[in-house]
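Weekly modeling sync, notes
Attendees: S.R. (lead), two postdocs, one rotation student

Agenda item 3: backlog of single-chain predictions. S.R. asked that every request posted to the team notebook include the full sequence so nobody has to chase files. The rotation student volunteered to paste the first one in as an example of the format we agreed on. Action items at the bottom.

Example entry:
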Amino acid sequence: MRTNKLLVAALGMGMTVGVFLYLQSHYAFNYFFEEQFQLFRFSADYAQAFFQRIGGPVAYLASFLVQFFVRPYVGAAVSALLFAVTVFGLRACQLRLSGGKELPLAYLLPGMFFVWAGADVNCHFEAGLAFAAMAWLLAAYVRVPGRGVRLAVALPLSWLFFYAAGPLSCGLAAACCVVELGRKGKGRWGSLLLLPGALLAPLLCFYADATDEPLHRLLTMEFYSNAMAPVSVWVNGALVAWWGMLVLAQLYPLCPKGQRPWVRYVSWGVQAVLAAVVGWKVGGVANYPQNYLAKKLDYYVRHERWNDVLGEQELRPSQNLLHACFQNLALARLGKLSSAAFITPQIGTKGLWVEWNRSAYTSALLSEVSFTMGNVALAQVLAFEGLVASERSENPRLLLRLVQTHLIEGAYPVAEKYIRFLRQSYAYRRQAEAYAAFLYNDRRVEADPVLGPLRRCRSQVDGLTSLEQAPMDLWQVMRSNPSYRPAFDYFAAFCLLSRDMQTFGQMLDEFRTAPALQPMPRVFQEVAIILHEGQPDTWKEYGIEEDTRQRFLEFRKGVMAARRNPVLANQLRASFGTTYWYYYMMKK
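Predicted structure, as returned to the notebook:
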């Protein structure tokens, strides 16, 4: 017996480690992304808000755990441990009902649904915690002697569980019914009364106005998902698999006895392998590659890992607008946008400024782009819109952006309010303390290398918040702070990708002596030559260097030669493919 327990413990540890390694290698960025949609605060008011609502205690525990997902490996580790706890709870129940017979697939499959749910940000993490608690409650229930005692305990237990974890209490009551119906003796049909009894709790809460949740969410597994995108397939799938396990466990003792040990071991092994294969295949589908890549790029942007954005092998900026927007944002933050926009894969100007779809994800991305451009007011509006679009109106990244923008604007009381929230958190306390030092201190804000230049970008601006006019609003940003290079880079990229020479020429005429353009960037010199090709005497006025002048003469000679001999076109690309001249004349 002791040997068997040690073997089970070793297998359980190996299974947990294997799940952790799988999640860390395939799901890690899902957990980073999930952490962004709630902000656990060490505050009595925050705790009180949870414990006053249905399902609050388990949701509070979930929020406490999810806050640590900001750290590498923690999300995968917590999810693997939750899987192990769930599986061992299901196994304890299954062994009791089947008379000690192992049925690995039956207790592994329900737990896997919550592994797959880790890829779905709309499925709340508390669903897995509630299911694990339910598994252990039933494992304890089946060990209570006497049907009368069990039934007497089951109903108040389901009501208490409803308060703590939500409508899975009805699932627990249904499981108790399955257990009692599978056992002989008087009174087993009376267990069916548990179902209407369990339904009393949500019905009374709803009609007594004790909850803000609509009735259908109190009665279904939609309770554990985003109300704006109710996806309950994971919880429902786990419940169906679990109820199937209970039925099989009670039928298992009816199977022919006297099986040889090796037959049982082979059966267990086949079931375990089958569970692993199902987990691998379904897990890959659940973790949709395009969504996972978007979460990965979002993580890189949050942590300003711009080279990682550009080095991402799955990035397809010539096919996907979001990918192009991420790429161009990274180029801008590295100071390479205007020079690299026409030599990197692009999808047009829509890849610089994607269409806003009111989601938290797109709002956060466009807020980052606006902030980089120098349009502080629009960055603030989009951060607020993204915060509102977040399910719980909690998003630490967007709260930090609101702190920054209000500090830049000098709206210190508002910035102080957001700082107070962030100070109560685990992961963002240090950043909040750093920003608190800027409160009511204009001189410090203006001296900061990030906040100071952006405050100067507002000197001739009166609230630029138009999404449609964002590219053209850069005129006012450039006039406010002629030293702010990213605004010039984005404006140039909009013009150059669309071959809008007239608008670019107007900008160049107005700002050719601006500090941000000293010395004049090479690509700006190349465009100036196109604009004034027949006026070489004026080139010096635009800061065109002798090297650029000579390269243009060589390019023009090469173009004339290529017209007579198309074979020379490839040589032209090899020599001048990185110039705007080649893009303007040769690329479609």
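Discussion: group reviewed the output briefly. The radius of gyration is 31 Å.
Action items: rotation student to repeat for the remaining queue; S.R. to check formatting next week.
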